[in-house]
Amino acid sequence: MANMVNEQLEEIWQSTLALIKSSNHFDDANFNTWFKESAQLYDIVDDMATIVVPYKIHKQVLMENIDFLQEKLSQVVEKPVSIQILLKNEVAQMTPQSVVKRRNDILFEDKIKKDYTFDSFVVGKNNREAHAAALSVCYYPGKFNNPLFIFGNSGLGKTHLLHAIGNYVKENKPDEKLLYIYSEDFVTLLIEAMKNKNVEEIKEKICEVDYLLIDDIQRLKQSTSQEIFFNLYNKLVNDNKQIVITSDIHPTELKGIENRLISRFSSGLSVSVGSPEFETAKAILKKKMEGRKDEILIEDEVLDYLATKFSSDVRKLEGSLNELFFKAILYNPETIDLKFAKEIFKENPSIPQDDALDAKRIKTAVCEYYGLTRTQIESKSRTKNIANARHIAVYLCRTLLNMPFVKIGFEFGNRDHSTIMASYEKMVKLLKDKESFQTAVFQIKNKLGVKD
Ligand SMILES: Nc1ncnc2c1ncn2[C@@H]1O[C@H](COP(=O)(O)OP(=O)(O)OP(=O)(O)O)[C@@H](O)[C@H]1O
Questions:
Q1: Are 447 and 370 in contact (CB under 8 A)?
Q2: Residue 33 annotated as binding?
């Protein structure tokens, strides 16, 4: 297919949109937002179509549905076509020819962030295993943990660890080649390479690396890219080259990724990163402050406050600190104290506001601390950690709210007041000599914003 004129492209795109709509794959709102109102067929050259979208979020959504989109477009043009998705501002900077001839060298540019090192990574209970595993592949690449698969929710340090491996290798093994790839870029570049007929060249280059670091593998949704990746993967592992992968979920729960890849991902070591507990969150804040040159003083209890409120996502935790310093420049307080911080975040939707304390909030905080559900602590289960969590919740309801035992009983599956009293007394005893319970109570109170 030679380059097409605009009317032809428009006609093809409208037919493709009609097919997408009639497939009922998306509801009206999604269809309009992601396809009809934002995407545009920019060009089709040979068997490569370029679709242009305004923002990254559009690109992300389309990339997640790229096989589907290719199928519909291929149906319209009556031959198989591949699709690359570009942002409007990317296209604006290119000549028409270069849109389809983007240099694949981008793949091999050094993308390792210098400040994401092992030194700048705070180790806590939530990431100890992942940190140790990341170090182990630096010391013994391709030997024990291949691939190393690091998974966990957004903003908890997976990418940081990947770059830390990169920085370690660059500094200590300068002769070794490493390649960091963000999965979505990998798909885009492979699609372009298919168009430019230089996939083999790219594969050969990738096969030369000693470390392959792949970020956010859940975004490797496109089937041809998975096929190519599968071959590369086997070759690298057979040659004892180290592969490290990050993902937002455990390999076995990956959706849209071929089973043969999933089973290979599970064959090495899978380690998780979780949300930092209070001390680690506070240490991260202190670490992030080390490099700053702010002249204003931040009070320690503000760090406690941020560590308590934002610990579920380190990116937000870091963001909260930046926001405070930024607002301090604007409003110029003498120091950043708790009052100032609370005022700044008073309407922040990602933190629970200081509602009146009640049994429900206590139960929720205890559950979050122990990783349980409310149904579990309200149940009759005698499993040790559930029972312990229940004792703590009962204890806090009694000491913080001064609730009668009968009423507490209602909160915990209609238990008899004597059972609740026994539960409370047990916790009072445990708190006298068991440090782990003292810590738990301290941290849960912190979570609730209660000071002793
Ligand atoms: N333990 C830690 N010590 C220091 N900084 C951390 C730690 N954990 C996370 N961070 C910081 O939090 C921010 C977000 O981390 P990162 O980008 O690695 O998250 P992620 O898990 O890869 O998230 P996503 O899944 O959204 O890509 C980064 O600035 C990173 O430096």
A1: no
A2: no
Residues 87-130: tens digit of each pLDDT = 888 777 766 555 544 444 556 678 899 999 999 999 998 899 99
CA atoms within 13 A on the CB side of 108: 13
Q: How far apart are CA 193 and CA 358, in angstroms?
A: 59
CATH topology of domain 6-102: GMP Synthetase; Chain A, domain 3 (3.30.300)
ipTM greater than 0.90, yes or no? yes
Please list, in sequence order, all residues whose beta carbon lies within 8 angstroms of the beta carbon of residue 394, skipping any fewer than 6 positions away: 408, 412, 420, 423, 424, 427
Does residue 335 have a known ligand-binding role?
no
Cα–ligand 1 centroid distance for 361 (angstroms): 28
* Cα 216 to ligand 1 centre (Å): 13
Domain ranges of the chain: 6-102, 128-272, 278-344, 359-447
pLDDT of 329-340, one tens digit each? 888 888 999 999
What is the CATH topology of the domain spanning 359-447? Chromosomal Replication Initiator Protein Dnaa; Chain: A; (1.10.1750)
pTM, entire model: 0.65
C-alpha to C-alpha distances, 396 to 15, 44, 158, 428, nearest whole angstrom: 63, 66, 35, 10
Mean pLDDT of 175-198: 85
The DSSP symbol for 96 reads: H
Instruction: Check the annotation: does 142 bind a ligand.
Output: no
Q: How far is the CA of 110 from the centre of ligand 1 (A)?
A: 19
